[in-house]
Specification:
Layout: H1 2-19, E1 39-42, H2 46-50, E2 57-61, E3 67-73, E4 77-82, E5 87-91, E6 97-102, E7 118-123, E8 129-133, E9 138-142, E10 148-152, E11 154-155, E12 158-159, E13 166-168, E14 174-178, E15 198-203, E16 206-211, E17 217-222, E18 228-235, E19 238-246, E20 252-260, E21 273-275, E22 281-285, E23 288-292, E24 298-303, E25 308-313, E26 319-324, E27 327-332
Antiparallel strand pairs: 1-24, 2-27, 3-4, 4-5, 5-6, 7-8, 8-9, 9-10, 11-12, 13-14, 14-15, 15-16, 17-18, 18-19, 19-20, 21-22, 22-23, 23-24, 25-26, 26-27
């Protein structure tokens, strides 16, 4: 009986083996890790609280002229300017690019490579977009059909130099910078009408020059509590970020150097910037996006491999897009960026 039983069991095992196969190992369906470019330089442990350990810089698109003015839009894409190409484009997170506005800075016969196009953009409370134009030397609003309406183009009857960057304050006032980069000969250009390169405030139709003594005011941002206004100065002889105390009437006082990178030799100048919800400042500058704590300490640098010009938060506020020379990049953060007013 034992022999017969053993034989039957052996036969049954053989039949089972012939009728079925062991299941193959499950395929690895996990998404591939994003391929990074450039590097994230961590100079202080504080950087580890801002950027995940595995954070990488991703290139979203490239082959452009000189990228600037990024603005995340509700439809899930980034708008950005090409200052030398004179275009406004959009790009999706997967890298699909579309030209939105041609001759976006104005009609011009300037030499190829001139900074004649559009620059920074910002959303308004009405869902419109404000756009800085270099050739036209003005700020316009864009409606849903991209029709342009002039918001402001003169100060005391004189044309602006070339409005560059802008930011809203919670009282609805608009602050913007006006360096001479859109003028072919800059300060020496005969078309320059305003003798200084200013920072302006527009509130209820009243335009005020709140800073007149900076050589090249460029990027602009408020601290989260709006008590400090930051201005980057894109001057080869004085590469600095300035900070100002914001007064009750919206003007500023006590201007002081927040950070100085004049000694840096990598390509790039202090340019566009954003602030996160903790008050850290992300300023594009020589070689990358410089990260400063609220006291002005340099805690790290985001280096995409191209010289960056500006940054923007996506709608999740934890993705930072970077416009850098010919490309658009992004990097994930652990903390939220400061949400724009509109």
């Amino acid at each position: 009986m034992k022999t017969a039983t053993l034989a039957s069991a052996t036969l049954a095992l053989a039949l089972l083996s012939g009728c079925s196969k062991a299941p193959a190992p499950a395929a690895d369906t996990a998404p591939a890790a994003p391929k990074g470019v450039g590097s994230i330089v961590r100079l202080d442990p504080a950087m580890d609280t801002l950027f995940p350990k595995d954070a990488v810089i991703e290139k979203v698109g490239g082959g452009f002229g000189f990228t600037e003015g990024p603005l995340w839009r509700p439809e899930g894409q980034l708008w950005f300017s090409d200052v030398t190409g004179n275009l406004v484009r959009s790009i999706t997170p997967t890298g699909e690019v579309k030209v939105l506005i041609e001759k976006a800075g104005g009609e011009t016969n300037a030499p190829v490579g001139s900074f004649i196009g559009p620059n920074a953009m910002i959303a308004t409370k009405d869902g419109l977009v404000l756009l800085c134009q270099h050739t036209n030397r003005r700020i316009v609003s864009l409606d849903k059909d991209l029709k342009q309406t002039v918001l402001v183009d003169k100060f005391e009857g004189k044309k602006f130099n070339s409005p560059n960057d802008l930011v809203y304050k919670s009282d609805g006032s608009l602050y913007f910078t006006d360096p001479p980069y859109g003028l072919l000969k800059q300060d020496e250009d005969p078309a320059k009408e305003i003798k200084f390169n200013g920072v302006f405030r527009l509130k209820d139709g009243k335009l005020t020059a709140i800073i007149k003594d900076l050589t090249r005011p460029n990027g602009i941002a408020f601290s989260p509590d709006e008590k400090v206004l930051y201005i980057s100065v894109s001057d080869e002889k004085k590469k600095v970020w300035m900070r100002y105390d914001v007064k009750e009437d919206g003007t500023v006082a006590n201007g002081a150097v927040f950070a100085d990178v004049t000694a840096e030799t990598e390509a790039g100048l202090p340019d566009g910037m954003k602030v996160d919800s903790l008050g850290n400042v992300y300023g594009t500058g020589p070689g990358g996006v410089w990260v400063f704590n609220p006291q002005g300490k340099h805690i790290g640098t985001i280096k995409p491999g191209e010289t960056p010009a500006n940054v923007a938060w996506a709608d999740d506020l934890k993705t930072m897009y970077i416009t850098a020379t010919t490309g658009v990049y992004r990097v994930k953060l652990s903390v939220a960026g400061e949400k724009a007013l509109y």
